[in-house]
Amino acid sequence: MSSLFEYTLRLGDDSLILGHRLSEWCGHGPVLEEDIAMTNIALDLVGQATSLLNYAGEVEGKERDGDSLAFLRFDREYKNLLLVEQPNGDFAITMVRQFLFDAYRKPLFERMQNSKDTMLASIAEKSLKETRYHLKHSSEWVIRMGDGTEESNRRAQEAVNTLWRYTSELFIIDELESKMADQGISPNLMEIEDDWKKTVDAVFKEATLTIPKNNWKQSGGRNGMHSEHLGYILTELQYMQRAYPNMKW
Which of 60, 88, 117, 221 has the highest CB neighbour count under 10 A? Predict the structure, then answer.
C-alpha cells in the first residue's frame, strides 16, 4: 500500500462517513431551512469523498474507483477519524461534532492548496470554498446554542464533554503523516492544531462553553480500529452494492 494512497484514503473516508452521518438528518431537521442546509453540507462532503476516493483508486492502480472503495471495503479498511462516525444524537451533538471537524478541515485545506501533489492541491482548492461555509454554519449554531437558553447551553456543553475525547486524534502525527509532510504533500499538523485551537477557543468563549478538564483521549480510526458505530453505518451505506453486486443505475 503506497503512502499517498493511504493518506488520500484517510481524507476521503473522513468526508464519506461524516457526509453519511449528516444525510441521516434529511427530513428530520429542526426547521425546514436547517434540514436543507444539512443536506447540502452532506452533499458537499460526499462530493469531496468522491473526488478523493477516485484519486486514491488511481494512485492504487488496482482498478478500484471511488464507488468500489466506498462500498466494497470491510470496516477495518476504513481510515476515518473516530469523531466523524459518532452518532448524531441531538442537534447539539451534531453541530458540535461538525464544528470540531470544520475547524480542523479549513486550515488543512488552506495549506493543502500548496501541496506538491497537484491533484490534492486542486481538490483542496475546490473543497475549501465549501468548508469555509461549513465552518461558518456550525460556528454560528454552536454560539447560538451555547449562549442561548439554559437548556440549549446544557445540551451544547454535554455535546462538548462527549466529543472532546476524540479531538486529539485530529493531530496525531504518525509515520504516514510525518512522511507526507516531509515530502510536501500534506501540511504540518502542528500548524493546523494551532489554528484549530484559536478557532475553538474563540467560538467557545462567545458560546460560553468550557473545554473539559479530563485528559481522556480515544484514537485508532486512522489504523482501522473503530467504534461499534461504523459497522452500523456501513450496513446501511453498503446495502445495495452488497445485495446486488456490480449493479448499475
Answer: 221
CB distance 224 to 73 below 8 Å: no
* pLDDT value at residue 216: 82
3-state SS, one letter per residue, for 41-91: HHHHHHHHHHHHHHHHHHHHCCCCCHHHHHHCCCHHHCCCCHHHHCCCCCH
Provide CB contacts within 8 A for 183, sequence distance 6+: 116
Rg of the Cα atoms in the chain? 18
In angstroms, the CA 70 to CA 57 distance is: 11
Residue 249 domain flag:
no
Q: Which domain holds residue 104?
A: 3-243
107 and 196 Cβ atoms separated by less than 8 Å: yes
Amino acid at 180: M
Q: Tell me the per-residue pLDDT of 24-50, one tens digit each, with 9 for 90 and over.
A: 988 887 888 888 889 999 999 999 999
In a domain, 248, yes or no: no
Whole-structure pTM value: 0.95
